[in-house]
Amino acid sequence: MDRTPHVLIFPFPAQGHITQMLKLAELLCLSGIQVTFLNTHHNHRRLRRHADIDSRFPASLRFQTIPDGLPPHHPRRQFGFLKEWIYSVDIKSQIEPSFRHLLVSYQSQNNPVTCIISDGVLTFTIDVGMGLGIPTISFRTVSTCCLWTYFWLPQLVRSGDLKFGGEELIDMDERVSSIPGSETFLRRRDLPSFYRSKEIDKTGMEFVDTETQNSTKSHALILNTFEDLESPILSEIRNRFTKIYTIGPLHTLLNTKRAEPISVSSNGLWEVDRTCMKWLDSQTPKSVIYVSFGSVVLMKHSEMMEIWHGLVNSEKPFLWVVRPDSITEELESSDEVAEEVAEETKKRGCIVGWAPQEEVLAHGAVGGFLGHGGWNSTLESVVAGVPLICWPHFADQTVNSRFVEEVWRVGLDMKDRCDRSTVEMMVRDLMDEKGEGLRESTARMGELARESVRDGGSSFCNFKDLMEDLRLMCQ
Ligand code: UDX
């Protein structure tokens, strides 16, 4: 007798991961699969507060929660939280038992889990699943170009080709010439954050290395990318996995399946401020630079002021997302500065705490995006045909920003620079005539992205393939 597929989805507990995996959950449900989405208690409370989850999702999407392993009074700021998980939480003793317990209880009911789709950095789930006879598919939320570096870098460190320790050993512009596919353009400064510092971050490196190697034991790998964007690296990485489904851009694929697009830029752990849409309506076409650094980046007040001065000096209207928890230092509150900021912002800008980003990027008034090169933001900008300026901070952002400028030609890399004259120059370069070439190549890439999710496109077909495989798993 055929059973209904029942997939358990388990993301790493950070916004950038939850965003993508919740989209996948909705996609599966809209295709007739029953999904249980596993969140930590803390993140689920935030999601429930801001994302209207009870009325938004199909009835076949259920939520379950487990503890995150941190003490109750831990502040759980987003960036700290990522680090806490890697450095403080012992996944084996603090997370794995609750996960196993949940699965065991499902297996004894009449709708057992038939496949686990877990974050590619939570690979303990593969062994738990194997023990209970449930296949696990890994989902990596980073770009393929970054994932590919994760396969190579630990062995370059071990062989001594990638050196740490002391100023004299680190030339940030030195090429990292032994990673196939990026020999000619990837520099030390473009590597994921664990490999850029002068001191080796052993814990971070080992975590990434172990998770990356372990993920190859999974039944298959899902990537939020599309073939036309990353095909050379995809052909390299395919040798490492039994099967890869490239089904991105996920948000675009999802929009093709929804009966009507959802107005709230969803899945957020913050409340969306829609007043900026009205403000955008009052601006001329392609005139506005949208500024947002995702959900985890923290910046100093001095950096924020450099960006603000650069934006004002560029004389372009700007829409800026300043997350309430994103500034690391107290404001230097001279009344004069505050007044100047308020006056100038009123003249040419709009600042909100959290924007409906997908809608903002699709708005005709937006002509450029100054961001951090986060993977979701990069894909969302490409789909909308909006060229980027990337000021990357950590993880895959440093790799993405190099590919944005050098390989995909959809923007400019502002890595390791944050002064007002650079911001002004780059904004002008992007938004004025000089940016015409970038606008054209981004529009072309955006068209390829949209084609990939249309009937017969690569992501469309790969998603269909994934659906068939999920159904086969429960026969
Ligand atoms: C992080 C990493 O940067 C990313 O590269 C990794 O793959 C996952 O974790 P984050 O820093 O949050 O994620 O950036 P990004 O991947 O760009 O995701 C941000 C998401 O928040 C996007 O989907 C964006 O649309 C949304 N967003 C952001 C809003 O909806 N409103 C905002 O105001 C800002």
UniProtKB/TrEMBL annotation:
User: What highest taxon heads this organism's lineage?
Assistant: Eukaryota
Instruction: Please provide an example of a Pfam family that matches this protein in its UniProt record.
Output: Glyco_transf_N
The main enzyme category here is transferase
Tell me which EC number(s) this protein carries: 2.4.1.-
* Record's keyword terms, sorted: Glycosyltransferase, Transferase
The molecular function terms of the Gene Ontology recorded here are: 7-deoxyloganetic acid glucosyltransferase activity; quercetin 3-O-glucosyltransferase activity; quercetin 7-O-glucosyltransferase activity
Keyword field contains Glycosyltransferase: yes
Show where the Glycosyltransferase N-terminal domain sits: 7-64
Do the record's keywords include Nuclease?
A: no
List the catalytic activities from the record. 7-deoxyloganetate + UDP-alpha-D-glucose = 7-deoxyloganate + UDP + H(+)
What protein family does this chain belong to? Belongs to the UDP-glycosyltransferase family.
- Name this polypeptide is given: Glycosyltransferase
Name the species this protein comes from: Stephania japonica
What lineage does the source organism belong to? Eukaryota, Viridiplantae, Streptophyta, Embryophyta, Tracheophyta
